[in-house]
TrEMBL record:
Localization per Swiss-Prot or TrEMBL: Nucleus
Gene Ontology terms: biological process: DNA repair; DNA replication checkpoint signaling; replication fork arrest
Domain Timeless N-terminal: 15-155
Keywords (A to Z) from UniProt: Cell cycle, Nucleus
Cross-referenced InterPro entries: Timeless, Timeless_N
Any one Gene Ontology cellular component term annotated for this protein: replication fork protection complex
Region (Disordered): 1-20
The species this protein was found in: Menura novaehollandiae
Keyword Cell cycle belongs to the record: yes
Domain of life: Eukaryota
One family name in Pfam for this protein: TIMELESS
Protein's recorded name: TIM protein
Molecular functions per Gene Ontology: DNA binding
Principal location: nucleus
Length: 197
């Protein structure tokens, strides 16, 4: 068996699971309890005086479990339908494996350097967005808040309106070239039978 000590757990066929002896079941339970008890030992800061970044005793135990293949075996026990009797032992072992880590550290660890770069890109984009919003606000404060539809009134000297007064022109100066006295008046409709042929 590739598992060495874990032989009773790795039988591939259902017949082997049914033929498992009581001794094998006891051995499996003892192995799981041993792993749980080893992981349950609290850290002792006075004994663990290593360099910063050095692996703690707990981390080294986890690495040894990984090298031996015990983590794969625990995943198998947690997911196998026929091994539900070990579910609480496996759950307790997994919770003890992650007892020193916070969820934020675990999430960042799974992303690796790409995740850190993604975080930096996100921060840069956020600062650029804030800068753009500030510039937009500054531009909005500089221009008037309401658009005046009143383009101004102009007096056209030399062009008389009704009476003796000069014409008052209420449109923009660019419309002055097309000015006629009929501007703004409804054209008179000529009945069809009186229209020129």
């Amino acid at each position: 068996s590739p598992w060495g000590l874990w032989g009773p757990l790795t039988a591939p066929s259902p017949q082997d699971w049914e033929q498992r002896q009581e001794e094998d079941t006891l051995l499996i339970e003892r192995i799981l309890l041993l792993v749980r008890n080893v992981l349950h030992v609290p850290p002792d800061p006075t004994e663990e005086q290593g360099v910063d970044g050095d692996a703690s005793v707990h981390d080294r135990v986890l690495w040894a479990l990984h090298i031996s293949g015990m983590d794969d075996l625990l995943k198998f026990l947690a997911s196998a339908q026929v091994e539900q009797q070990w579910a609480l032992h496996v759950l307790e072992i997994i919770s003890l494996m992650f007892r020193d880590q916070s969820p934020e550290e675990l999430a960042a660890l799974g992303q690796g350097p790409a995740g850190a770069e993604h975080g930096e890109d996100t921060r840069e984009l956020e600062t650029l967005r804030q800068r753009e919003l500030a510039e937009k606000r500054a531009r909005a404060l500089q221009r008037p808040s309401r658009h005046s539809r009143f383009g101004g009134s102009y007096v056209l000297q030399g062009l008389k309106s009704i009476g003796d007064r000069d014409v008052v022109f209420h449109k923009g100066l660019h419309n002055l070239k097309s000015y006629t006295h009929d501007l703004g008046k409804e054209p008179r409709r000529v009945p069809r039978h009186r229209q020129a042929v």
